[in-house]
Amino acid sequence: MTAFSLRFRRTRFWGALDGSLVEISEPEGARLPAGEAGSLATAVQPMWRRRLNPFGRISIQTLTHALETLENPRVVFASRHGDMERTVRLIEQVASDGTASPADFSMAVHNAIAGIASINWRITASHTAIAAGEDTVVCALTEAFCQLAEAPSQPVVLVYIDLPLPEIYAAHDDPDAAPVAIATVLENAGLEQGSFTASYVPGDGVGDRCRQHARLFCDFALDAGQMSAGLIGRNAGWRLVRNV
Question: What is the pTM of this model?
Fold first, then answer.
C-alpha cells in the first residue's frame, strides 16, 4: 500500500460555508467574511493585479497566505474547470470575428495563476497545473505527495479553486456548484503528533465530488480534532489519518 507521512500548515479556505462566503486561515482559525473579489490579491504587483478577474484574485488570495513564510517552494495548482469566464469570452470572440484577445488567452491557460505567483514571489522552483475532471483534487494530492517523495526537504504548496460555471455551461457543473478555493503547505514529516498519514485507496466509480473533496480536505486540515478523512474519487482516492 502506498502511504506518506506528512503535515500541512498555513492552510486557507475561501468559499461558501453555511450560506455565506467566508475566509478561514490556519493557524489563526478565525472565520471572517470573505472580501469581494475586487478587494482581494493585494499582495501581487498592481500591473498583475489589474489583469486578474475573480478567479485569479481568489486564487492569489488563498495562495498568499501559504507563501508568506516560504522561499522558493514548488507549487501545484489545480482546478477542474479553470478560468471559464475567460474561456467563454474567448469562444465568443472567435465565434463573432475569428480572433481572440491575446491578453485573455494568456490569462486563460491553466497555469497562468501559478506563473503570476512565480513572477511575483520570484519562485524559480517548478509549478504544475492539474485538471483531472471529477478526480482533480485527488490527482492534485497525488502530484504533491509524489513531489515530496522525490525531493523530501522541499515543501509543496497545493492550491485548488473552482467557481460556479457560466450560465451557458451551468447544467454541466458539479451538484455542489458553490465557489471554493483552498491553499496549504505540504511537508514531509515523521509520525509525530500533528502529522498525518495519507494512504492510497482505489476509486469507487462514483463521480461529481470534486468540490466536496476540497471541502473534506480543508475540514481535515483546519480542524485538529478531526481524526480522519476519506477523499475517494471515481478512479482513485486518499485516506488521511492523523498520527497520535
Answer: 0.92
